[in-house]
Structure formats: C-alpha cells, structure tokens
C-alpha cells in the first residue's frame, strides 16, 4: 500500500487501563494537577483558566457527548447543522464541531486516543471526573486517525490547514510518522504564517530523534515545539525510558506516565506516552494565550522554553512550568500595554570583544517586543522579551557588521541599529597534548536556544579533536585518554577536572558561549 495511506499513527504503544470514578480535580489520581509538581497547575489557575482560546485536537476524534468535554466543544458559528450545506464556504459541509478527514463521516472517537488527549487539554471543571489544564478553553475536533488509529500524511496536512484557517490558536499533534512529507511541512509553514502554535509528541521509542527523525515533531519551525514525557519519581519527576528525546527536536517535557483523562465510553482511563505529555503543554500554552492574547506563536514557544525548569543532566528537556510560563506571558502583556504611544527604538549600547567572544549590550523601547540580531547579514539570534546582553563567538577576527532589528508582537520590523565589531587578529589558541603543543583553531557560532556550531582541529596531529554538528547538536569527538589543557591569548585556560571521564559522544546543554566552556566540551578527557 502507498506510504501516504498508512504513514500516520497515533503515538500509542503503551497500555491503557480503566480509572476509578473520581471527582475533579483529584490530585491523587491526576498527579500532574498537584501543586507539588514542576507544572504547578493550581498556581497557574489563579492567573488563567484558558478562556477565549481554541485548541485543535488533530487526532482520532473526540467523544462529543462526554460530560467532561461537551461543555467545551467549539461550535462553528457560521455553519447551520443538518442542512447538508457548506454554509461558511470553507470547503466542508456541516463542520459544526470540527471536521472528519478519514472518510468515516463521524467526529466521534472510535479509538479513544483523541478523547484522552482532549480531556487533558480542556476537560471542564464541573465537579465530576477530571479537570483539564485549560478548563475554560474550547476544543476543535479534527479527525485524521480512523477507527484503527491510523491515517495519512495528506489527512494530517489537511487537518493542520483546517485548524489554522478556522480559528485555532494552538494545534495538538499526538501522532507520528516516519514519512517526511513536503505537504505536512507546507501546512506547518502556513500555520506559522497564521500565528498558530503547534505542539507535537516526541514518540515512545526511547530514541534520539535528533539523530533518527520522526515527523511532524522533527520539522524545524519556530512555531512548533516537541514534547517528551515525565513520570513521578521519588525526588520529583524523571524522563521515563520509553520517551523519545533530543536536545534540538524535543526541548521540553511534561507529565506523560499514568495520566488519567476522559475515555471514549464516557468514563475515564489511565494512559501513558508522549501523546499524554503534549496536551499538557498545549493546555499551558492556552493558559498563556488567554492572559496575553497579543503574543505570537513564536513568543509563546519562546516563553515555554525560557521558563522550563532544567534538570541537572545537560541535554535533557526542560520540565514545563505552567505557573512560570503564565506569569511571564502576563508580564509581557502588561509591558505591551505600558509601551503604547512610545516611539519604538532599539539601541546597541556596547559591543565588547575578548578574543573571539563579543558581548553586546542593547536596549529597546516602545512596541519593540523582540530583537533579531544579524551578523554580516546572517541571523544569529533572536532576543525574547527583556533578554540582554547577548554573547556571540565570531568565526574569525575580521571586522563584522552587527545589525539589531526591533520586532513588534507580530514579528514586523519597526526599528533597527547597527554597529561594527571585531577587527584585530590575535594569535591562534594552543593546545598541549601529551607534552607536545600543536596549533588549534576554534570556530563557534552561538544561536539563541540552539547549540553551538563548534569545530576544534588539532592542526599538528592532522585529526579532528571534535566536531559539533549545528544541525543535530551532537559532538562526535576523538577519544582522549590523558589530561589535556588549553588556553588562548585572552587568558582563558581550561584544565580537565579531576575524575572527568573519557569523551565519546556528548550533547550540549544550555548555551555556554565563552571559549573556556567551549573547550571544556571539546577537550574533556580522562584523568590518569
């Protein structure tokens, strides 16, 4: 059978079980709703409940009559039910609560996957069952998975387009395929243009999707965020073994093991998987959009990542913090109101260099929301909110043109400033390895919320000490079995820490732009 007919599957290899009848909200059963979790939904609910926001559940459908879901179903205001006409001219007949793209002519969920996802996002707070993360948000039903839980990439692309065209601000995609279909990429791009945030599950294979991609989570887009799962642990939360990961593709994580939510039979059940994690993040995004309706999809994504709680292990996804994210969104909304009437400006106050490291101080005012930074015409960073200063690591010591562009909430350029940085070429760094010294050349590029592209070459030995791949965020380094030290003319020196281990494969953590830390990643070695 053709790939497009069987490519799309719900992310559901993990078992589901019936849950006992519970009253909402039940912190015992709904562990993600407990104030003790990183998510801290009770704290976030004091600020927002998701009112005025619509989330599209692009999945296997929704049990429309479920008592916890029926109150929050989206109803198409321009469609007349039952007249067998396309009243609103959107190409779909009688799409009252959404659309079925599977050919089975029903929005009702025959599989149960979409119903469970929908309950996590927006189950009503009605004194029964469970409560959703954004319990006042509206749910749009977009059915792309049939009664067997499978569909096609064409259905997925059409589903994304339908949701974006009919008013969804957030799209939840708890599904996966190995097929990288250009039609799906184009639909994601159209959603970005429509200012729609897409939240994707990472998958349940326990693999690094930076290296072995799955789709749509591996589509690079600034309006798409991939989500890993977390599970309850003795010391808080942990990433379960089944969850896919990858520091580039999957930057955040949310509760995904033992999640109680709505079931297709009208009751409740417990499921596990990244399919259950993604709707937690979609719900948090709805809480944020409710208190700050002017934020773009890119800004919502940026705030989710910026306020995620980072675990101690480098390269692991950050745990989504609902309270912190909603507070940040509300703060951005207040800041936008306070800047009305001010002239939009962006200024480069200073650009100080130490070796290849440039530290740039900037200010902004008026309606400037973000600052896009270009070096010699190439975009190298976008500073979200109040973030400054910016640290860049230059590829060479020639003069460089720095351009700061002030962007409003819609991403439109409304101000700019220029500066000249760099110039003098100092001597290259040196490395002492096994008593002999060889010349080294460090080239690094710092990208906001992305890995450093770093190459460190041992010229004298004729071999690469380590290569960091900017596209995948992986350092593939030659093994070092003895101490190594490194220094540069600016005076930065690195000596391996006692007890450090042999370097094989390393993934980067949060951006660490100074040369000493770059050398630490590349030159980590065993202590004899």
From TrEMBL:
Signal peptide: 1-23
Keyword Thylakoid included in the entry's annotation: no
A Gene Ontology biological process term: proteolysis
Single Gene Ontology MF annotation: serine-type endopeptidase activity
Stored Pfam families: Peptidase_S8
Domain of life (superkingdom): Bacteria
Active-site residues from the entry: 59 (charge relay system), 113 (charge relay system), 275 (charge relay system)
Keywords: Hydrolase, Protease, Serine protease, Signal
Regions that span the bilayer: none
All residue ranges annotated as the Peptidase S8/S53 domain in the record: 50-308
Record-linked PANTHER family: CELL WALL-ASSOCIATED PROTEASE, SUBTILISIN-RELATED
Annotated family: Belongs to the peptidase S8 family.
Full protein name: S8 family serine peptidase
Organism: Solirubrobacter ginsenosidimutans
Taxonomic classification: Bacteria, Bacillati, Actinomycetota, Thermoleophilia, Solirubrobacterales
């Amino acid at each position: 059978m053709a790939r497009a007919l069987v490519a799309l599957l719900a992310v559901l290899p993990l078992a589901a079980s019936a849950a006992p009848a519970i009253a909402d909200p039940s912190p015992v059963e709904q562990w993600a709703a407990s104030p003790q979790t990183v998510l801290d939904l009770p704290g976030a609910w004091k600020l927002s409940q998701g009112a005025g926001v619509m989330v599209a559940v692009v999945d296997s459908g929704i049990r429309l009559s479920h008592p916890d879901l029926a109150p929050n179903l989206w109803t198409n205001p321009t469609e007349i039910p039952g007249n067998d006409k396309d009243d609103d001219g959107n190409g779909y007949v009688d799409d009252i609560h959404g659309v079925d793209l599977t050919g089975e002519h029903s929005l009702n969920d025959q599989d149960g996957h979409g119903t469970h996802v929908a309950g996590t996002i927006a189950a009503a707070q009605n004194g029964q069952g469970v409560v959703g993360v954004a319990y006042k948000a509206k749910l749009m039903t977009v059915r792309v998975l049939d009664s067997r839980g499978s569909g096609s990439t064409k259905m997925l692309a059409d589903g994304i387009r339908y949701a974006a065209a009919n008013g969804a601000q957030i799209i939840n995609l708890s599904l996966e395929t190995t097929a990288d279909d250009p039609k799906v990429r184009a639909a994601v791009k159209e959603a970005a243009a429509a200012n729609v945030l897409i939240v994707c599950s990472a998958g349940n294979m326990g693999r690094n999707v930076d290296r072995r991609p799955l789709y749509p989570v591996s589509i690079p887009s600034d309006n798409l965020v991939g989500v890993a799962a977390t599970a309850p642990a003795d010391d808080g939360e942990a990433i379960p073994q089944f969850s896919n990961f990858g520091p580039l593709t999957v930057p955040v994580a949310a509760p995904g093991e033992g999640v109680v939510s709505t079931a297709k039979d009208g009751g409740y059940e417990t499921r596990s998987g990244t399919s259950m994690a993604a709707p937690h993040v979609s719900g948090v995004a709805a809480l944020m959009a409710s208190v700050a309706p002017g934020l773009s999809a890119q800004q919502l994504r940026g705030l989710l990542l910026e306020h995620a709680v980072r675990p101690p292990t480098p390269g692991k996804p950050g745990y989504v913090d609902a309270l912190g994210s909603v507070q940040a969104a509300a703060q951005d909304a207040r800041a936008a109101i306070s800047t009305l009437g001010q002239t939009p400006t962006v200024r480069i106050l200073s650009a100080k260099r130490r070796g290849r490291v440039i530290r740039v101080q900037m200010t902004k005012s008026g309606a400037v929301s973000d600052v896009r930074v270009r070096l010699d015409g190439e975009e190298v960073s976008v500073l979200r909110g109040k973030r400054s200063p910016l640290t860049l690591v230059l590829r060479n010591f020639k003069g460089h043109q720095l351009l700061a562009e002030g962007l409003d909430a819609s991403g439109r350029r409304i101000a700019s400033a220029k500066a000249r940085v760099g110039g003098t070429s100092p001597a290259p760094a040196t490395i002492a390895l096994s008593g002999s010294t060889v010349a080294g050349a460090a080239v690094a590029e710092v990208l906001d919320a992305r890995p450093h592209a770093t190459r460190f070459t041992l010229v004298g030995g004729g071999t690469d000490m380590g290569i960091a791949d900017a596209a995948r965020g992986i350092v593939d380094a030659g093994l070092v079995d003895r101490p190594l030290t490194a220094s540069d003319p600016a005076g930065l020196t690195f000596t391996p820490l006692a007890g450090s281990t042999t370097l094989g494969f390393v993934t980067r953590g949060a951006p660490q732009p100074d040369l000493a830390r770059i050398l630490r990643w590349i030159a980590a070695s065993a202590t004899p």
